[in-house]
Design a protein that fits this description.
Length: 260
C-alpha cells in the first residue's frame, strides 16, 4: 500500500519529521511479516541486509534506498530481552521486508536512521508481544523511536483482488467494506484513543477476543505489532501523556485501515 501515494504515506512523513525534530538516536521496530521459528524471538543483525521484493510495487520506488542497520542497538536489545526471560537471539542473515523498509522510506525519505528490527514470536500470543514492547520501553527515554507496523484490518482471504491484478489499482472501491471489518477497525481506534497506561495494554490485547477479530484478521501476524506498541506506550508513566489519535487511515482493496 505504501508503494502508492496516500494519506497514510503523508502521515508517515509527518511522523518522521517530528521524530527528526526530536533528534532521535534510531528506530526499533516490529513489522508483520517476520516471525522466528519455534518459541523464539529474533533481532536483526545482518550488517548488509537486502530488500525482499514488493509485490505490485515497482522496484524504482525502493531499490536505491540505503538501509542502515543498527548493530550495537541490536546487541543491546538482545541483552534487554534476555534479561526479561524472553527467548531472544540475533539473526545475522535476515533481509528486510516491505513492512519495515517501506515505512522508513515514507517516514525518512532523506535517509534511513539507524534501525533495529524485532521479529514476532510465531505463537502469536498477544501478551508475549505486549511484554516485548514493555521490556524495550526504556529505549524511548534514551531517544529511540519505537514503531509497530501491521494493520487494524488485514484479511487477504477477503480481499477483492481484481483491481490490483488487472489494473494495478490499489485503492479501487467497487463497494463498501463489510460491516464486521469496519466494526473491528473502529474498536481498534477506540482502544488506542480512549485508553492510556496499563489500560491501553489490556484493551489492545483483549481485542483478539473481539467477536469480529477473525473476520478482520485471517491470520494473527498483522496484529502483533499493535500489542508490541501498546506495551511500549502503556506504562503507568504514560498515563500523564497526551492520548493517541488516529492520524490517517487508508482503505486498500476493501480492507479498511490497513497500515502495512
Amino acid at each position: 500500500m505504501l508503494g502508492e501515494e496516500s494519506t497514510s504515506a503523508d502521515y508517515w512523513k509527518k511522523c518522521g519529521d517530528e521524530a527528526l525534530a526530536h533528534n532521535i538516536k534510531g528506530v526499533v521496530m516490529m513489522g508483520a511479516h517476520w516471525d522466528a521459528p519455534g518459541d523464539f524471538l529474533e533481532i536483526s543483525a545482518n550488517p548488509k541486509p537486502a530488500k525482499s521484493p514488493v509485490g505490485y510495487v515497482h522496484p524504482s520506488k525502493y531499490i536505491d534506498y540505503e538501509l542502515k542497520p543498527d548493530l550495537p542497538t541490536s546487541e543491546r536489545c538482545l541483552t534487554i530481552l534476555q534479561s526479561a526471560d524472553l527467548n531472544a537471539r540475533l539473526n545475522t542473515k535476515f533481509d528486510w521486508i516491505h513492512d519495515t523498509f517501506l515505512i522508513l522510506i515514507r517516514a525518512f525519505p532523506s535517509g534511513c536512521p539507524p534501525t533495529t528490527i524485532i521479529s514476532m514470536n510465531a505463537y502469536y500470543d498477544p501478551h508475549t508481544h505486549m511484554k516485548i514492547g514493555s521490556t524495550l520501553r526504556p529505549l524511548r527515554e534514551e531517544g529511540y523511536l519505537i514503531i509497530g507496523t501491521g494493520g487494524a484490518v488485514h484479511n487477504l482471504y477477503r480481499n477483492v483482488w481484481e483491481p490490483m491484478i488487472l489494473y494495478r489499482n490499489n485503492f479501487a472501491q467497487q463497494r463498501a467494506p463489510e460491516k464486521p471489518l469496519l466494526e473491528f477497525r473502529q474498536s481498534v481506534e477506540d482502544c488506542f484513543a480512549r485508553n492510556k497506561g496499563p489500560a491501553l495494554r489490556r484493551a489492545v490485547t483483549r481485542l483478539m477476543k473481539h467477536p469480529d477479530y477473525r473476520h478482520a484478521h485471517g491470520t494473527d501476524d498483522h496484529f502483533m505489532a499493535a500489542c508490541f506498541v501498546a506495551g511500549a506506550a502503556g506504562a503507568w508513566e504514560d498515563e500523564d501523556l497526551e492520548g493517541a489519535t488516529l492520524g490517517a487511515g487508508t482503505i486498500p482493496t476493501l480492507l479498511p485501515f490497513s497500515t502495512d
